[in-house]
Amino acid sequence: MNDYLTKSGLSVHPLLVDFVEREALPGTSMSAEQFWSGFAALLAEHVPTNAKLLAKRDELQGKIDDWHRQNGPVGNNPAGYEAFLREIGYLVDEPSDFSIETEGLDPEISSLCGPQLVVPVSNARYALNAANARWGSLYDALYGTDVIPRDGDLAPGKGYNPARGAAVVARAAQFLDESFPLAAGSHADVTGYHVIKEGDTRLFVVDTAAGRTGLCDPSQFIGYGGTESAGELVLRHNGLHVVLVIAPDTEIGKTHRAGLSDVVVEAALTTIQDCEDSVAAVDAEDKVGVYRNWLGLMTGTLQDTFEKGGQTVTRKLKADRSYKDIRGQPLVLKGRSLLLVRNVGHLMTTDAVLLNGKPVGEGLMDAAVTALCALHDKGGNARHGAIYVVKPKMHGPEEVTFACAIFASVEKLLGLAENTIKIGIMDEERRTSANLKAAIYAARARVFFINTGFLDRTGDEIHTSMEAGAVLRKDEIKSERWIASYEDRNVLIGLAAGFSGKAQIGKGMWARPDDMAAMMDAKIGHPKSGANTAWVPSPTAATLHALHYHQVDVFDAQRRRHNEATPGLDALFSMPVLAPFALSREEITRELENNAQGILGYVVRWVQQGVGCSKVPDINNVGLMEDRATCRISSQAVANWLRHGLVSRDEVTSVFERMAKVVDEQNAGDPIYRPMSENYQSVAFTAALDLALHGADQPSGYTEPLLHAARRKVKARDRK
């Protein structure tokens, strides 16, 4: 306490005071006194409500646990279960039909469909890469991934493989034929791309062996840049731009008969700069680092210098792309993703600010400080002045209403117009998905997105039904009808609420960043389902996933689905329990090992190094994107089996010790890694094991409380 500074009755960590007063406030019209007094009033108003809502979560969970102890799984009495949930207030009455009222949204939200990145804003390099992923080289994405097979003559090798390069060019030509068909012939046979002037307009023409032709739809050509011999030609399809780079003197261009050196596609239309699940921010120092990078993105000044390939590289935000339209007038295309910021949820507190000597809700601090930073956006990001905040882990419409009240208070604090702060509702907790229509209604004037989150949603389902019986194996859960019901309800309820053409309906992450061929086969299902956007794990994945939005007209898919019947709650609550003796001991052990390995592989980096999102090799050495949501599933699954006697405490401990050796081997090349198998009392190992042994007792099954406590121990030790 002695190090804290007093600001309007609050005790504030000096690092946060310094950031707010020296970095975030300058350039705004607010004084430090105005900010701190307004922030203190905001906390005094909302801290008590925050505590009451968290207490209600625990109260409802306790009642659900008791119901399952008396009645068993939902399948024994589905009607009785639904009636019980209504009786205790878990389910609320649905509002009458309505349409959302949100105004002032950018086209990337309302009228364009494409990939969405999620990136830890704590890592400046990653944050910049994602912001710059609005545009991606299709040639590079195809050459560097398994979308083009990697065996035989097509193996990448150490240097450039001309055979692989030819396969890339052929696949790109296929894409062009599908999205920008020629009036005659194929892009594979083009010998020249040209712009010719006819009157006061320019036309796109191509030469082929069969003669001169153009696009089937000439309106797809919208602009150009450079010269006739070396330049860029801008095409548009389904609202997305594609740039043909004509550079016959380049290494790639000289191998193409038309000098086509690259096909650049508009890729990540939006990016969530994440303060939550993909970061490990446990104290004032960490939070200031998160806020500083977000501020740098808003001011446009963020940059990062690092070593790559033996060279020093400095990364900055890319500029807009400038061309001329078909009449020769300036045409400017946005060079960066539209940036959204994900605040933390309602659960965690932070001692960066103390109210009456107690830590305050971290989500309250996020709301005020990230919005303050966004005041520095002068149109380089959100062209209509909106501030886009994604709010995760809300339980039901009451908590959505609370989030909107917080944002209203922040608007008052910062002198912003009503509903400037837009809310993205993460539909990832069961009380929200069961009451989604009411949750959207609660935010109808500021909602800009709903997004399913399979990972957290599954973790919450396991925890909510902890006493119902033994849960299925993780891979089996994916094919259960409650998952399909959840995904369908999200789209159909969103469409009924008027989202089409106004706001985003989103889908979740592709978790295997190295398996792009499989992603291309599977993830087209998201736009086909009527989702405007879906999460991808990298800029390269965004470039590839963008092709799906050329293959599928999302708004047409939404029109086809608009009158579908919404699955009922009986389907949503239908996850079965594991039948007795359904699994052999070998199968149980294998599943336990898989969960333990994933938990350990993620937690050790989180606790030791403060890495909130990692590509963690699974038990089969397949790299999987892991964050707190994936960790929540694995820890809840082990805790559930422990609760129902499929595994014992000693067996869990033994498997964790055995898998620690595997994780140590997988991290052997990391010079700052500390092996866990040499000390089973280490902070990292103990935290990972605690997530499993005490997972049933964690609030809503979340991993944050144990992870934060462990990381703070390591940071305190390292400071000594």
UniProtKB/TrEMBL annotation:
Record EC number: 2.3.3.9
UniProt cofactor(s): Mg(2+)
Pathway: Carbohydrate metabolism; glyoxylate cycle; (S)-malate from isocitrate: step 2/2
Malate synthase N-terminal domain: residues covered: 17-71
Location of the protein in the cell: Cytoplasm
Modified residues (Cysteine sulfenic acid (-SOH)): 613
Main location: cytoplasm
Malate synthase TIM barrel domain ranges (all copies): 339-561
A GO term for molecular function: magnesium ion binding
Binding site for Mg(2+): 428, 456
Keyword field contains Metal-binding: yes
Protein name: Malate synthase G
The encoding gene: glcB_2
